[in-house]
Design brief:
With about 150 residues, the protein is mostly helical. It has helices at about 1-35, 45-55, 60-65, 70-85, 105-125, 130-150; strands at about 85-90, 100-105. The chain has a single domain (about 15-150), classed as Winged helix-like DNA-binding domain superfamily/Winged helix DNA-binding domain (Arc Repressor Mutant, subunit A, Orthogonal Bundle). One of its GO terms (molecular function) is DNA-binding transcription factor activity.
């Protein structure tokens, strides 16, 4: 049994882990894109809306970290969302050089529909998992993230 475990770790550390994580991210992203297309919202735009709604991101810097974008790409994405009338920039009372982002009434109206659709995507992606497998997946991903945080 330990031999099998070591073999799996060797295989994953030989590049398979990166491939699987990258392929899973692409599959998730593409599924969300397809599901939100009729709402004229991209997956990246949804991440911005969801982050604002959950209080996990309100500045350009926070969104850069969440999406892994550089500040130029993030600014372009936010400009496109703002042009659609779905977010607005407001003065940051704690830092006059920066802005906070907030949802507009238009995005607050469409966000619940988008969130339901994204939740449906994730439920489809978790089809076939029982509660124990889903918990193990979550624990495994959290461990990978914790290990990565220790490396950086």
């Amino acid at each position: 049994m330990n031999k099998s475990k070591a073999d799996t770790i060797d295989i994953l550390s030989g590049g398979e882990l990166g491939f699987l994580v990258s392929a899973a991210r692409s599959a998730i992203w593409n599924s969300i894109e397809a599901e939100l297309q009729s709402l004229d919202i991209t997956a990246a735009q949804f991440v911005v809306f969801n982050s604002i709604a959950l209080g996990k991101g309100r500045t350009i810097g926070e969104f850069c970290r969440l999406l892994g974008y550089d500040s130029g790409a993030m600014t372009r994405l936010l400009d496109r969302i703002e042009k659609k009338g779905l977010i607005r920039r407001v003065a940051n009372p704690e830092d006059r050089r920066s802005f906070l982002l907030e949802l507009t009434p238009e995005s607050r109206a469409v966000f619940p529909q988008a969130k339901k659709r994204v939740q449906a995507v994730f439920k489809r992606l978790l089809a076939g998992f029982d509660e124990k497998q889903a918990a193990a997946l979550r624990q495994s991903l959290e461990q990978v993230l914790a290990n990565a945080a220790g490396i950086s």
